[in-house]
Amino acid sequence: MAAYPPLEGVVMENVKPAGGLSALARGLPLGLALSLSLLLAGCGKVDPQLTAQQMTMTDATCAPAEVSKIADTDVRKAFQERCDRREQFKPAAPPAS
């Protein structure tokens, strides 16, 4: 075996001690960031039927001009279907005596 010369007088400024953070601790922030991004990515799409059911239905909101202002096409279609059903089930006027 070859003998190595002593390291006397060598400045070791940028040498870190062995050990430090474990691989788990180093990867933890990255794992949390990835988990958060996947969680938020799944929350982007809203159920159009649920959204349309939450909207207030009146004669004014069921007007074609108001329905056309709904940006999401699926929500607009579901809301228009609810307005159409609302028109079908309006009570009849009482008979004239």
Automatic annotation (TrEMBL):
Keyword check for Lipoprotein: yes
The organism of origin for this protein: Pseudoduganella albidiflava
Upper classification of the organism: Bacteria, Pseudomonadati, Pseudomonadota, Betaproteobacteria, Burkholderiales
Sorted UniProt keywords: Lipoprotein
Protein name in UniProt: Entry exclusion lipoprotein TrbK
